[in-house]
């Protein structure tokens, strides 16, 4: 087998592979000899089939199997022998001339094919001890724990039907029908909807107009959807809602005690406080972790400058660009609404894709050199998390990960990355700094806009919303409906 490099330009490589016809025929003959004793052909006793007849009947099919195996197995062996790693699956090109293909299958012509690929650049790892990060931590006090428990208690509190007018804090059960210009809109209708007045669940002006109503009352109220409302067909428009009040109920008093804990399935109020404190600490810890990771990535980005495989960047960019256009379509906005142009956005997100690929390669090299491994148990836990996100579709999800090439890698990659970050935290300088909750969250929102330009594969608004991973974001004010706003509904 001849392996001839025909292109070595930057990271791009092209290899011509030639396997002489005599070598292909020798391999074919070897396989035919191996099956000769097992072949059953009418008119011949087992093992007595003349080789020429066997070759005439099965030669081409065996040669086709050889060609497929060579194309499947040889590229990885060739790259290994060359000491190279391909950024993506090498592209294989063979002759498309039918007559030439027949000659190869008949053992009359050399088998030639070409490999085209990009190599993963050699990365010389640098000393990480110069990396320094500030780890912001929040001390959770008893007051914050009690405030969170109060919110939980409010969501679990009971209500009792009352006579008379509805006031703030009361729960009303209503039927409603929303209209714009006198025409009902999708998602603007519901029956037996329960709403606690003063909860600000619905758009401004809606709940206030229900104060003072009592069971049996009917009323038409007028509201205006916010200009930035997610459903573009409703944003900024005036709407009316036909209201029918079915019940007014007053909230029972809230007491944080063992009885409340029992309702929540816990043995005591102390246990409730312990769990809530742990959840809050975990929430802040997630934000802290993300901010530390961002600092590490920013410094690694400054430390490592090298060309990135174009195909990897193309694939990353396409993922980003697809998400950008999906976000714009769902919000009904354009690039002009985001204070940019499509051309400028493409340039920005192309740079973003290059950064992500470069950092991914650096983290991969660091992890490989450090011996970072992802265990089968960790993979299974990640898979179970995926299954929990799609109840009722567990079988389909399992089949997807079993049958789809690269699917398992999508589970492994984030685990591997986090373990590499853990490894780096043991080598770099980490300074803890106690901050308030507001400082932690405010800084994270500011940083997320920078991250939107650097590493997050989403537009600024989406990046900002996701930056504080684990943070309980304030819910958007909604119109009274139950379907998704992205589908044109009012909620």
Q: What would you note in describing this structure?
A:
The chain has 491 residues and is of the alpha+beta class. It has 13 helices and 11 strands. It has helices at 21-36, 51-82, 98-105, 142-156, 258-263, 269-303, 310-331, 342-370, 376-389, 394-403, 407-425, 437-454, 460-467; strands at 2-9, 12-19, 91-94, 111-118, 132-137, 159-161, 171-180, 183-196, 218-224, 238-251, 429-434. The strands form 3 sheets. Strands 6, 7, 8, 9 and 10 form a 5-stranded antiparallel beta sheet that branches. The model is unreliable at 447-491 (pLDDT under 50).
Largest sheet: 5 strands, antiparallel
The first-to-last residue Cα distance is: 66 Å
| Unreliable sequence segments | 447-491
Overall average residue pLDDT: 85
Q: Could you tell me the radius of gyration in angstroms?
A: 32 Å
Instruction: Tell me the strand percentage band.
Output: 15-25%
Total DSSP E strands:
11
Topology:
Elements: E1 2-9, E2 12-19, H1 21-36, H2 51-82, E3 91-94, H3 98-105, E4 111-118, E5 132-137, H4 142-156, E6 159-161, E7 171-180, E8 183-196, E9 218-224, E10 238-251, H5 258-263, H6 269-303, H7 310-331, H8 342-370, H9 376-389, H10 394-403, H11 407-425, E11 429-434, H12 437-454, H13 460-467
Parallel strand pairs: 5-11
Antiparallel strand pairs: 1-2, 2-4, 3-4, 6-10, 7-8, 7-10, 9-10
Summarize the structure.
The chain is α+β, with helices and mostly antiparallel strands. It has helices at 21-36, 51-82, 98-105, 142-156, 258-263, 269-303, 310-331, 342-370, 376-389, 394-403, 407-425, 437-454, 460-467; strands spanning 2-9, 12-19, 91-94, 111-118, 132-137, 159-161, 171-180, 183-196, 218-224, 238-251, 429-434.
